[in-house]
Design brief:
Number of strands: 7
CATH architecture of the largest domain: 3-Layer(aba) Sandwich
CATH superfamily of the largest domain: Response regulator
Order of helices and strands: EHEHEEEHEHEHHHHH
Strand order of the largest sheet: 2-1-3-6-7
Radius of gyration: 17 Å
CATH topology of the largest domain: Rossmann fold
Length: 226
């Protein structure tokens, strides 16, 4: 079930360069999770960047065919293939790429494919991400800033959408590896260790049925939020 396209974020009102360290940059985020993308959107918007989102390899290639972002942030697990393939393609075009995954073991795969750095979900530090982006795009050092702040939490509505999609993926006869990878990444991004453990150990139909019930329980809790 594809998500509707995300609009181009407007730049925040003019402030100092220190307050908007990513001002003037356009980033393409390729990730099938609305929840993970929403958290990134909040960080990038507050830092002054523009962001576009693509939820699949196909849509990402359409984006790049229409404009050239300053940086692509590419998740490794996508519904129509591996993010490593897109990373290799974009890197061959000279486009800076940041690999992204909820699986820390994805670091080597992303770097071998051509990513300049790797970002593990969930994002823990706003300043560290902004500094990394500036270093990749412009080779710049960190801006002078105050105390770092934790990454903001995304909209609960985005989490609901992702959990509904996860139920469909787990219960249908689609690619089980993709379904569990999507749910594992979502569990890490939403800081839900119980769901992460369950997703990592779901090997039988019984396990997947229990996992689907866990997701339904979380959806019930979220019904009255946001």
């Amino acid at each position: 079930m594809p998500f509707p396209p995300d609009p181009l974020l407007p730049l925040s009102p003019p402030r100092s360069a220190t307050a908007l360290p990513l001002r003037g940059l356009t980033l393409l985020v390729v990730d099938d999770s609305r929840f993970a993308c929403d958290a990134l959107r909040l960080i990038l918007q507050r830092a002054g960047a523009r962001m576009r989102r693509a939820e699949s390899l196909e849509i990402a290639r359409l984006h790049v065919g229409c404009y050239r972002p300053d940086l692509a942030i590419v998740d490794l697990g996508l519904p129509d293939g591996r993010g490593e393939d897109l990373i290799a393609n974009l890197a061959a075009q000279g486009l800076p790429v940041l690999g992204l995954s909820g699986d820390p073991d994805g670091r080597d795969r992303a770097l071998e494919a051509g990513a300049m750095a790797f970002l593990e979900k969930p994002v823990g530090s706003v300043a560290s991400l902004v500094r990394l982006i500036r270093q990749i795009v412009a080779g710049a050092g960190p801006e002078a800033s105050g105390e770092d702040t934790p990454a903001p939490q995304a909209d609960p509505g985005a989490l609901r959408d992702d959990l509904r999609l996860a139920v469909d993926l787990v219960q249908t006869k689609g690619d089980p590896a993709y379904a569990l990878s999507f749910l594992h990444g979502l569990a890490r991004a939403s800081r839900d260790p119980a769901l992460e453990i369950a997703a990592g150990g779901a090997r039988t139909p019984f396990d997947r049925a229990r996992l689907a019930q866990m997701i339904e329980d979380r959806l019930s809790v979220l019904q009255g939020i946001g």
